[in-house]
Amino acid sequence: MRNLIDLLFTTDAVQRLRLQQAALAMGVLAAAVLVMHWFVWMGVVRAAPVAWWTLLALGGMVVFFVLIRSGWSRRWSEPSLMLPQMLYALACCVLAYVLLGPARGAVFPIVMVILMFGMFIATPRQMLGVSGFAVLLFGAAIALASWRRPAAYPPVIEFGHFLIVATMVPVTALLAGRVAQMRLRLRTRRDELAQALERIRQLATRDELTGLVNRRHMQEAMAQEHQRCIRSGQTFCLVKLDIDAFKAVNDAHGQAVGDAVLRALAQEALRQVRTCDFVARWSGEEFVVMLPDTRAALARAPMERLIERLAALRILHGAEAVSVRLSGGLAEHHAGESVEQTLERAAAALDLAKAQGGGRIQAA
Length: 364
What we know:
Alpha-Beta Plaits; 2 domains; five-stranded mixed beta sheet; two-stranded antiparallel ribbon; 7 strands
């Protein structure tokens, strides 16, 4: 059963909603068909015209459903085809009004239900256009019926019907348009809220200057990797990086140039590591890299490439061109030790690299 529903309405959430709306509209006309055939059974109207009307009404809605289901409607600015469906259904109601004779008053509630479909997508201006279409079409049908069959459609009674259409249809359409506008505003605010929450999440896990994960998020990632290694018996490497003489760069060129250096380092570090690796801004000019499921011998090569690439870069900021060097301490996690202990060994290796002149990677 579920497979049949998916075949009919697809598994795409947006397309499924459009098809459900079209099916609901088809259901409204199907209810109108039952009412029409009830009056046929009661002998109020003739069967042949109602049969043709049924074929026209349901057949047209099936065509709309197929256009949406096939994806053809996506060529239009409004892929749900809600407005064309409403106009078509209103035209069918006008024809039903002419066919029903003494039972024609049953058409008006169906017209109101059709207009309420506008709250799904239409704007107030569009709904005023739909209501104008309905009033003109009903007015023309009422005038023609009164002129050709005054006995069955007394002009005085028909003028009253027209007054009902001319007043209630625009009001209902306007209310539907306002509801649609409110739905749009709520959707816009919901999207803005989702964007704000995503921004908050980014601020909570990312360093605003470099775009790298921040210290807090890196600590969580290292703790998770540590637990994974305990279960699997695998290992990982931590690398602590520091820009040599960064304070001198800030003092000589200003903080803006220093920020440009940090961003350049972050971008180059992301180019040299794998997608599964983590690069975090630890503090100031210090960075930490975590390489999961990696031995020290394999972790050294990308770090050496990073140091070479950064040394070769000429970091531009306005008229300033700066080059810097990077030092790093590499430590492979050992079974039985904590993450903090591995990081302390990486920091000690970094201090040794700096003591040896900097611009190099030192293994613990």
